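quick one, two chains, predict together pls
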Amino acid sequence: MANPLKLIKNGIVNENPTFVQVIGMCPTLAVTSSAINGIGMGLSTTAVLIFANIFVSLLRKVIPDTVRIPCFIVVIATFVTIIEFALKAYLPALNASLGLYIPLIVVNCLILARAEAFASKNGPVAAAFDGIGMGLGFTIGLGVLGLVREFIGAGTLFDITVLPEAFPRTLLFVMAPGAFFTLACLMAALNHFRNKN
Amino acid sequence: MNLILLVLAGIFVNNYVLSQFLGICPFLGVSKKVDTAAGMGMAVIFVMSLAAAVAWLVYAFILEPLGITYLYNIAFILVIASLVQFVEMFLKKAAPALYQALGVFLPLITTNCAVLGVAVLNMQKDYNFIQAVLNALGGAIGFALAIVLFAGIRERIADNDTPKAFDGFPMALLTAGLMSIAFLGFSGLIKL
């Protein structure tokens, strides 16, 4: 079995879902109007990813190859439903602000991609660590995006005002176009950094 | 009258891609050429309207009477996945020409979150059958419009020199951002 730390680092750095693989873009752009929303979404997705990975890995010898995708989707949808109810019960405010995007975790390509590419070929422990790594990478991507957008658009960080009242807010950044611009600039900065090395 | 407004709102005001971020993956993935973008758009219009109708029927006649509405997510995604598979087989037999044009895009639609998104939205907003289908139709036309326009712009950009760091995704995202600003101009146009 591969080294757990290596798997986690792979998810966060080498194959970061947001900045390197560029998958799971819908929630990445939609819910990152604030850092808390971004991280909340990231952690919910991480939870689904870990459990889905473990179960897909456990069932990998039982699931026939021809119908594996529908089987994966049912496993994923089950855990999304569980997370949805857990959020509704314990974090109703976060659930309200993430709204529609919680049930849509089912079609986050990141989760299906990990089930197909990793969990269905590896043991449950490795799959769990892969889930943790990828999930954290995703959470970091969403968190950074949320921090930048919240800071420029609303002048706050984690809902705490940091910019003086007189400083103008660029409201556009917490609206839809800002999501595209922020991600474009962050990716371009990373590309620039990579080209230099 | 309200029904026409519902369709128009879906196309312009609540554009799924540019203001609600549903269906971003195919929007960024299959938008390098206008032809393929148009093919994807047509396939989405077809599948999304059909999926919204079937999902509504499943919710109203199976989930609600049995009191298992909490299973909506699993039910909807299964409906969509099997519907896509069915449409693919049906087109292959009945309309090979259409299958040639849309075939490669169909499997991708299962993971287009706009399709599941519209089914969930219809349920959350308590739309009746006709409203649900029209809402999906409007949303899907909006998606097709956005992806074709976007592909047109990307074709032009491909011929130009862009800063090296912005090559590929960053440039596409910037373009999408500008389009999103343009579509912000429609907000408040229709109040439902």
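The interface with chain A takes residues 18-25, 28, 70-74, 77-78, 81-82, 110-113, 116-117, 120-121, 124, 163-167, 169-171, 173-174, 176-178, 180-181, 184 of chain B (CB under 8 Å).
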